[in-house]
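help with this:

***
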Amino acid sequence: MTRRHTATVLPGVPRGAALDALGGVEQAAAIHVMPNLVQPQPGFNPRGRYLRPGQDPFSPEALADLTASIREHGVLTPLLVRPRPGGYWIVAGERRWRAFEAARALDAQEGLPERSGLRTLPVVVRSLSDVEAEELALIENGQREDLDLVQETLLGFDLLARHTGLPRDELPAYLTRARNYPERDEFGVADLLRRTFGTGLSVWVQQRSKILRLTSEERMAVQTGRLDAKVAYQLLALPEGAERQGVLRAAVEEHLTSALVRERVQRVLGVARSEAHAEAEGLRRMLGRVDRLSDDRAIQARELMQQLRALLEEDSPRKARR
């Protein structure tokens, strides 16, 4: 039975307004706390799940501009935190926290007096469950401008799974239903996607759901710019395996267009159908020999034929439903 729960509702925040909890942080009453009380929760930040090889959003180089700004002006936007024993866990704003710590360290190295903007951290404290905190962290990361297509898609489906309680593989069907029948969007995902990513349901139904079906190698080719997403989608007509990998390599090395990849895929499928037809014809001709077998072998052959018939009959209704 599919696990379901209602969409996340934050304490004091109306149903369906989880995004406002982030958008309202700047206007909320912030408190200033000592820096040592604020820590990132180990393994909590969802950003690390979607990084490309070699990508590090917390490296000194990646934080350089933000660190320089905080040294001069302090932290202008409060961090969203939740209570923990003896302090606070960061829900949103880990980059600001790391840049703040880097700014303090640089001042100390240079022997500068402590700046007023670096003595305390502005935070907004919310009592959040693990589920609520993770959803807000996913939303914050989803609104970043440096996400590539694959990162945004994987993060988006994780957010949808967390928000709806549905397994990831059931989400494309739910999104299709919500697009076709808006009144059946019980979790309000159309609004969630629009406000988080600026995209509508049709984009996630027609394009983003295909990203989930790509192999890790295919996703990496898209992320690194070696393969256009529309070209990668053509590979989905093939089952995973050596032939699909071969078409992928050709597409990358020869810079094939979507139309050319589609032609190669159809060629592979045509060969596969021809081979399957030839095997079926050969088997049909050999079935006439069953009566010539000894009793034991004839019984074994008929059992195998019954198994084959059962498999084919089981598969026929599936194809009829597609």
